[in-house]
Amino acid sequence: MTQTGLTDFGGNDADGAGDTRPDEEAAIVAGDAGQHVSDVIDADEVRFPDPEGTVELAVTQVDYTIEGAGRDEYPVIHIFGRTADDETEHVRVLGFRPYFYAPTDSLDDDTLDRDVITGTEDGFESIRGEELTKIFGRTPRDVGQIRDEFDHYEADILFPNRLLIDKDIKSGVRVPARRLDDGTIQIPHQEVAPAEVDANLRVNTFDIEVNDRNGFPEDGEEPIVCLTSHDSSRDEYVVWHAVAEDGLGERPDSLPNYDFLGEDADVDVRTFDEEAEMLDAFLAYIEETDPDLLTGWNFEDFDAPYFLDRLAEVDPTTDLNLDYNRISRLGEVWRGGWGGPDIKGRVVFDLLYAYKRTQFTELESYRLDAVGELELDAGKERYSGDIGDLWEEDPERLLEYNLRDVELCVEIDRKQDIIAFWDEVRTFVGCKLEDAPTPGDTVDIYVLHKVHGEFALPSKGKQESEDYEGGAVFDPITGVKENVTVLDLKSLYPMCMVTINASPETKVDPESYDGEMFRAPNGTHFQQEPDGMIREMVDELLTEREEKKSLRNSHDPGSSQYEQFDRQQAAVKVIMNSLYGVLGWDRFRLYDKEMGAAVTATGRKVIEFTEQAANEIGYDVAYGDSVTGDRPVVARDPGGTVRILPIEDLFARGTTESEVLIAADGDVVASATPGKTRRALDGWDALSVNEDGEAEWQPIAQAIRHRTDKPVVNLQHKFGESTTTRDHSYVVPGEDGLTTVSPDDVAEPYRVSGVPDVEPVERVDVYEVLRGYEREYEDGRSVGSDNSITKRKQIHADDEYVWFGHEHHRDVDSTVKVKRFVDIDSEDGAALIRLLGAYVPEGSASTGETATSKFGASIAESDREWLAQLQRDYSRLFENTTAGIITSDRRAERTVEYQTDTGGASVTYNDETLKLQMMNELAAVFFREFAGQTSRGKRIPSFVFHLPEEKQDLFLTLLVEGDGSREFPRYTEAYAQRNFDFETTSRELAAGLSMLLTQRGKKHSLKYRNSKDSYTIRTCGTYRKGRDPVLTEVDHDGYVYDLSVEENENFVDGVGGIVLHNTDSVMLELGPDVSKQEAIEQSFDIEEHINAAYDDFARDELGADEHRFQIEFEKLYRRFFQAGKKKRYAGHIVWKEGKDVDDIDITGFEYKRSDIAQITKEVQKNVIDMIVHGEDTEVIKDYLHDIITNFESGNLPLEQAGIPGGIGKRLSAYETPTAHVRGAQYANAFLGTNFGRGSKPKRVYLKKVHPSWFREMESGEFDPQVDDLYREFKRDPDVICFEYADQLPEAFEVDWDTMLTKTLEGPISRVIEALGMSWDEVKSGQEQTGLGSFI
């Protein structure tokens, strides 16, 4: 019978063929399970053949096409699959319409009055209980175009996925065999039923080689010179070869010298005179073999799109049919979009991406040759020159190279079962095979399957977002620890969800809900019954995996049944991990802001309780990330004095605490190091706010420091600023009081409301401020400079005066002295305040830190009388010295010319600058210690915060007169007298002034000017609405700091008084004086104690009689080493998961990266191995010294020294080429290489190039007068890239000193510095102490 109905079923529609399809397929939505094609067009046009039984097929692909035209367009779903006998089937599904949901109360007749809307259906419900209406569209394209006009639900589901979800199709389908004349089955969508079917995919793996003489080929611009494919059904390799027009005319018909990796393999070589003939033959081969899946290495990014682009280029130039749509089972290919081309009817599968997604640890390289060597102990074939050279000069070698690439792909897949594994994921989830390796896509489809028919979910990104904090992150150490145990708090946040039954639909109002509830620590409540969607899914996945593991274990390892069930349990594990990962993602459909906050609060409470439980058995706790070290925090020292100082300086004032033991959440582990990462600050308090927002002083339990590799961000707002790790929390106003959010979610930071009362100061002891300052100097007066003696000047004092020098200088008449005690209410007190108030904005001091001679201080100003008063104040306080006023700029007037709208103008003003000079070292030290030294280091003297208000007024008057302004043209004079602007480049001064104003209850704003790197503080009467916070990621590679503050767990950044919350996490360590068996027993004791305590915690804190919280003793490090970064550590594991082991665990160090030299990998790994095995530092030092000596002598193969790096785009596309790019450009131009996008050459730095090489080059085609690149290289031949060492001419002399710096110095220094060694010491061979002293 002939095919009938729905117009002509063949080919593409006029509006939707090929490239004209919409670019963003993500806009295409799903279809209806309750409509028939007769609702769209006349039923008389539809005829379905009578069924001849039923057919079950494993689904290999689901796609759709648009048929009809104009208002008569309609979608047709195409299901492709194979029967249990591996026969191919094509099923056309009619009548399935696209749809989405919208809130019923948001719709009316006008809203729905669109031609593309074909109907509606009421009676649906969102997961939050909102009444929804289903809205049907004519085509997926139309629905995608109108969805944003609605508050839509499930409007972003791809149309083929909609069918899979609505019909609950996982593995396969069962359909009646209504066959058309060509054998295609055509059915109404109501007849599609899910079925479990196993069948074998037919896979074609292919790889193309392209003429690359003109650089890296793109967009089909260069010929495909050969391609190789492998058909899985025939186990057949075929090489297609187009003879080079300008070559030697060789036409190899076999590859007799090729050494196959697999057994009994063979290859069929097919040679063609023209590229077009070769391409046509390959397309015919695809049509004949009809593969379900096309794959290769980096297939989606290069081979597949380039092949299609090349067909589009060649097709118009030949009589052959090279329409790229031929490769599709439906005659339709979408070349654009994300994730590579969409070849309708076939799966486009990238083996590289799929392989990466099966690896649980990062490999140093995912290049095919690197993975081949790792998996098969076989790499790619090597060739010299470029592909174009091989094509013309040695085509047999080219074909061997091409064949090897495909064979590597096939054998890697055979060994790892990559495609089979992801097909297991597909069948479990019910997604398309090409989507299976992408976690977000996979989990999305899994969830949609689960909720279909019960709830409708929001479209992605439609939920209100709020940062969801992941597992606890632990504080690092620097150095070596003994017997470090790892306790793993398993899947904390998912287990929190399950314990409190957290899900969007289980959230209830405790005031109106009568049933049993769980309560989260933040006050959110969830019903206890029935189980929520999230709990159901987690339980199902856990049960399913255990069942698969049980089935696996009932078979012999190595058997086909064992392997199949092992793949299935691993597939379920992938879904579990992916689900856990997206539950806190604000674009996930089940994300709910209140639920996320509740789960985060629960997780934090679990961590806090784990800390408490650990403390009960005598173990301490550590804390996590916070602010950069330059942030000024507001503290009170043990003497009660307010201090606003950088947090790194506060940390330095602390004292060492005892060891702490570390436990990890997830796979992150670290250990605290006393004296290096955490300090006690006995008697110190932090300015903090309580839950009511009231400012109070609270004791600082610890100051913590560690390195971080996390992103660091600066947040600026009119209230102030801070610089923190991105996951750090700000305190902000919330609906029910104060709450915490991440920097990304700060709308308005919370400014501390004031400074609690402080003890007033009546007398200043100058000695207490200056004490501790000293300067070393060389004294050779009596013995000569060659025999000079190092001496030290210090601050000394008696009951009256303070001086700088030596003790006996007290009795020397010429010694400069300053009064020790200054009464605030006296004239001396006023003098001190005026001097410091003027010095802060206008002064400078030269001490031993900034000068080698001429020590002293000065204050600059144009007002002579102003300086004269300061001169008198100075004379009042200092003895045996004078101060003079000099002219530092003798120009009495300055004229500035400028342009206005009406022409040129000028202004003349007094520019005579005067300076009060106080040229003695004591004056310099005096001002430095009271108020800072450089313009960026100035600060408010601490005693100012303890002055009465009128004395603070005096200080502020001098401060503003120095560098402030009271000019406010738009305001009254009275306003101007009450307010001022003050500008400074000192962050510490900006913080101090801000807090002084806060203490005085004065409103003010802060603005940072990036162009001037300065802060402007402006006082005001009222706050106006300002700009939104500005968040900027900043470069930071160093320490971050935190304060553990009792009670409130927050502290204040002085720049505006912004309140910051400190993070927390649980840590444990056992210490060195414990045997392995004792360490194991203690670890189990800790585990048992903490787990037993969770029962009471869950019941008392959450209202849960049952819980899922469990901490497990996972592994024991005999020796653990960390080099100061959170994820840069190594350890010698001696026990893991119940078994004695002898293994080295290395994480985060450079040696695992793919962009570092082989010598770096080797040396760093060897050093780390020596450390964790307890080798003495003398041995380590000797090893490194020998390596460095050999390196400097050039006794190192270039392959080991070369620094690899990837090329991300065309070399010509780099506007500012890096050294690596320049090296690649030079190599291509002068060495005959062909590096381009996707290449990963190695680079070496050159010391020089012998002139003979330049002479040889210029005797040929290169002329520095006309060749810019050659001229650049000749002028400075500093770098070159290569793939193989023999590509570098002997005339190129490597700069081994630079190579040593680039490859070893940084990576090795980061390791050995944690042991107390320096690079310079190791390089020179100086003596070092033993490793034991650092443990």
Number of strands: 63
- How would you sum up the global shape? globular
Residue runs with pLDDT of under 50 for 5 or more positions = 1-44, 466-476, 618-625, 657-676, 1064-1069, 1327-1335
Helicity level, as a percent range? 25-40%
Q: For the report, how would you describe the main beta sheet?
A: 8 strands, antiparallel
CATH class descriptor name of one domain: Alpha Beta
Distinct helical segment count: 32
GO molecular function: DNA binding; DNA-directed DNA polymerase activity
Family: Belongs to the DNA polymerase type-B family.
Enzyme class: transferase
Catalytic activity: DNA(n) + a 2'-deoxyribonucleoside 5'-triphosphate = DNA(n+1) + diphosphate
Short description:
The chain contains 32 helices and 63 strands. The chain is α+β, with helices and mostly antiparallel strands and 1335 residues long. A hairpin with a 2-residue loop joins strand 33 and strand 34.
Describe the structure.
With 1335 residues, the protein is α+β, with helices and mostly antiparallel strands. Among the domains are: 18-195, no CATH class; 203-416, Nucleotidyltransferase, domain 5 (2-Layer Sandwich); 763-1019, Homing endonucleases (Endonuclease I-creI, Roll), CATH 3.10.28; 1151-1335, Topoisomerase I, Chain A, domain 4 (Orthogonal Bundle). Helix content is 30%, strand content 26%. It contains 32 helices and 63 strands. The strands form 16 sheets. Strands 23, 24, 25, 26, 28, 29, 30 and 53 form an 8-stranded antiparallel β-sheet that branches. A hairpin with a 2-residue loop joins strand 58 and strand 59 (1139-1147). The longest helix has 27 residues, at 1076-1102. The termini are far apart.
